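subagent[fold] <- orchestrator: predict structure for attached chain, return tokens only, no commentary.
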Amino acid sequence: MTARRVRPLLAITSAVALLACAGCHRSELSKPLIVILVPSRDNPFFKAEADAAAARAMSLGYRVRVDVHDDNAYRQDNLIDAAIASNAAAIILDNAGADSSIAAVRRATAYKIPCFLIDREIAADGIAKAQIIADNNQGAKIVAAEFGRALGASGGEYAELLGRESDTNAQVRTHGFHAVLDGNPKLVRVAAQSANWSQAEAFQKTETILQAHQGIRGIIAGNDTMALGASAAVKSSGHTGIVITGFDGSPDAIAAIRSGDIRATTLQPAVVIARMAVDQADSFLKTRSTGKPERQIIACDLVTRSNADDYANFEKIR
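subagent[fold] -> orchestrator:
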């Protein structure tokens, strides 16, 4: 074949390929869009729920966009507006505040875009099509009971690391902890500080607490990230025998439970909840009904060294 004939053939082949790619792109854009909004993808919990929701949506034939609002209600408003402008079929939302998110969810609903809330609820009914959340109160009570058992009949001084004060889940968890712990007069909380769900902040706050309270016997944390920060601070300080518990069931926390650095955590079933939200969105888009009540509360599991191998990536695997 001569060079003159090769060049036109290559040009034709390239043109066909470009047309095929354009066709694929048009085919992808023709799929309905599900927008997934989460607080962060740096936090393993939020990443797990975003990844699970995205995978389920794509398996059901949807196009997916994942955005992060960083627990900023103003940024969340802008992302909701972007979803409306993109003519999203549905929104899966882990929201930026029980009160501050109501207007954004109402706005999307007014534009006929159904919202399915995961992990955090809003302080209003009849706007979102579903609010699927873990039972934070129940989860807090079971891990607090394990914390109390670990400290034993003699009790002792303990500290609490709280989550972000504006987060409803942080408040529910601390209330659940104290519904159990306050019933034992031998357990004395000597310090309570917010570490804003942050491992670095938890490390710093724990260092300060340990310096002020040398006889402390336990640290109960509102999430696993803070529990891991506390564990690192305890190791760094040279203290031993301090009982630490978390909440969420993260892979890192479960590894720390296996190694004995953390006593227990509560698994919040992020993956199951995210899949449920997408399945219900799919049902609503096809039938105009989820077949479920709006508010759905999913039980949490206690994870200790005895059952740690049954859990991975925020779900029970066996």
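orchestrator: received. Logging for downstream: The chain has two domains: 27-134+270-297, 136-267. The chain has ten helices and 14 strands.
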